[in-house]
Amino acid sequence: MAKDPMLKFISKPQAYPEKRAAQLRAEDFAEIAERYASDDAADQASRCSQCGVPYCSVHCPLHNHIPDWLRLTAEGRLREAYELSNLTSTMPEICGRICPQDRLCEGNCVIEFSGHDAVTIGSVEKYITDTAWEQGWVEPVAVGPSRGQSVGIIGGGPGGLTTAEYLRVAGYDVHVYDRYDRMGGLLTYGIPGFKLEKDVVMRRVKRLEDAGIHFHTNFEVGRDATLDALRAKHDAVLIATGVYKARAVSLPGGDLNGVVAALDYLTASNRKGFGDAVPAFESGALNAAGKNVVVIGGGDTAMDCVRTAIRQGAKSVKCLYRRDRENMPGSQREVANAEEEGVEFVWLSGPKGFEGNGQVERVQVSKMRLGAPDASGRRAPENDPQGDFTLDADLVITALGFEAEDLPVLFGAADLNVTRWGTIRVDHNTQMTNLDGVFAIGDIVRGASLVVWAIRDGRDVTQHMHNYLKSKASREKVAA
């Protein structure tokens, strides 16, 4: 009987793909770690304990078959491992790169609880699908027979693209409308290349384009067509816009030049990486080179900003966060990467205002301390009046999160129901809005969240839209 290759977590230590030296990786926007060699990937996969109740899968929003494709990887059956991972995810190599595994699958790995360090699930997932692309195992989208119905999808991010793929497989004519000049949403313009190189996103987009999905770029609903016009054109419509409106900074001096929103800053940097002409970058307005940079916020977007500023050649980069390290929302791995690259974290600190003569020159900072827990259970920050100080700053980047835009106004759809937070109100049994045939998913429904949740929503809404479209076709047939 062949020896079982699994349960090696005692004899084999945890090992992630080796990161390039911090000084070297801070000089470019390439991903910071190399891929596993095949033997290393198999070794790490073999550490899986093959739990009867796999908490890694339970805590994965997509409920990926993680123990199963880890076993296949350990056995050298890599193509089967890819096919299994591809069953539940439209973008496994993207999730392998950008999911906060330390808060999801790896953070709930049973052997982590036993003190033997989690299986490196994300890195193995990335390795499996990168290998599949290289070996030609990633097949074209299998387009089903035409159903004679069309779907309009507003938003070309991960949720919209996932639904587009599944509905195309089901035989629908699919049109995706996006305000940007490239598809991918935040995958393309919000996440820096050192976390997600752009050719990884573009090859996914190209695969969908080759499947006959129609992409309408530089298209703004409300300007180029109202929501009602799209409803008249298509048999069903999906709103998957995400949330892009930066939370306002209502502080003295917030209107000074040099106080910029995180997404504007990251988009300019990513456009530059594509080779686009970016006037705001060339003028220095959205370029950190030679500047004292202060980033405000403690989430993953803030980490993207500080690490981008390092790569642009900033003179100094400081991150202000009002809580301590243990209570920040961003990935601890990203904090560690940032520190290695030269970012200074100023914990328990919040901005009071900005000073300068037309252009920001300084940030007034309040020292904070943690008080009693708030409604979420986290200890609430409060001012420490004895600790105010000032930081020099030529560029301040605010990364305080995102809110929904006013879609009823923006889309010319005053009858579209939204919540008091501006997110779209849906029937959670069907993901349909109050408008017949109009569905909504992702951050525009749940609020700012993770890419993997957008993919999950895109997968789930496909069946609801399919049911609606079949019913509509039957009604029309009877009426005819």
Automatic annotation (TrEMBL):
InterPro entries: DPD_II, FAD/NAD-bd_sf, FAD/NAD-binding_dom, GltD-like, Helical_ferredxn. Residues 151-458 form the FAD/NAD(P)-binding domain. Keywords: 4Fe-4S, Iron, Iron-sulfur, Metal-binding, Oxidoreductase. Residues 25-136 form the Dihydroprymidine dehydrogenase domain. Gene3D superfamilies: Alpha-helical ferredoxin, FAD/NAD(P)-binding domain. It holds the Pfam family Fer4_20. Signal peptide: none annotated. Its EC number is 1.4.1.13, 1.4.1.14. Coiled coil: none annotated. It is an enzyme of class 1 (oxidoreductase). This is Glutamate synthase (NADPH/NADH) small chain. It comes from Sphingorhabdus rigui.
